[in-house]
Amino acid sequence: MCLIWGLPYLFIRVVVEDDHLTPGTLVFVRTGLGAAILLPIGLLRSQIKPVLVRWRWLVVFAVVEIMLPWLMLSDAERHLNSSLAGLLVAAVPLVGAVAALFTHAAERLNRLQVVGLLLGIVGVACLVGLDFSGLHTSSLLEMAGVAVCYAIGPIILARSLSDLPGLGVIACALAISAVAYSPFAFLQPPHHVTASVLGSVIVLGVVCTALAFVLFFQLIATIGPTRSTIITYVNPAVAIALGVLILDEKLTPGMLVGFPLILAGSILGARKAKAKPEPITEVDCAETVPAS
């Protein structure tokens, strides 16, 4: 997941940098490809019908996890390089921890995990010690909105949709998003689509959407919604590496200092505290003695 969701920043930048596709059209194509792959599989496995019963929460999840953040991210990357966009999304775990407290989510962070989150945030602070001059304030606000949405989405999923088939949930959410953004395909059709743009869109739809969400649902089921956002600590490493190697983006000292802190925070934040053994009472001892 860290690798797969470190890829979109590069490919989104390639697509929207010269307005080959508008942000709305890109979201439509990306969600449409994902839905086209997952819907037939969900239908064959009979995982679509049970999901539709809870359509209200499904729409809320689609709006928060897909529609809003993907549009804001695509629009922000028209003015931000892919490396910086990936770094700003690294604030998701902290937002997720705060959101879990305010929503009274069942999952709570222990001290070790809190230390990991704070250490990761320090790393992010080092990473974003870049020159913000010339950047659009609106783009930075959009990235903040992306972080909030990505933190709340897994909580909605865990609290209201976790008992439903994961494949069916994401297939329907992608289909809803594609329908919602379909007007962009007609009002803002793509132009001057090069081979690199076409390849980027395909990777975004197939790998970074269809495959990624299937894996992400398994991750949430395994370690919970708050801890699953830890992957956003490692995503920036992938985003920066690709941005520097492929798009010739600048590698700064802050990035070199911040990476180790982020990775250390990721390791600590993802660890579970060891359960304390319960004291053995006289009754327990008696029960362990075989009857004569």
Task: Characterize the structure shown.
Mean pLDDT is 80; it is low at 280-292. The chain starts with 7 loop residues before the first helix and ends with a helix. The radius of gyration is 21 Å and the shape is globular. The protein is mainly alpha-helical. It has one domain (4-288). The chain has 14 helices and no strands.
Number of domains: 1
Distance between the termini: 56 Å
The percent range for helix content is: over 70%
Hey, roughly how much beta strand do the residues contain?
under 5%
Instruction: Count helical runs.
Output: 14
Query: Overall 3D geometry?
Result: globular
| SSE-based structural type | mainly alpha
Mean model confidence by pLDDT: 80
Largest sheet entry: none
Q: C-alpha Rg, in Å? A: 21 Å
Low-confidence stretches: 280-292
Say how many strands there are: 0
SSE series = HHHHHHHHHHHHHH
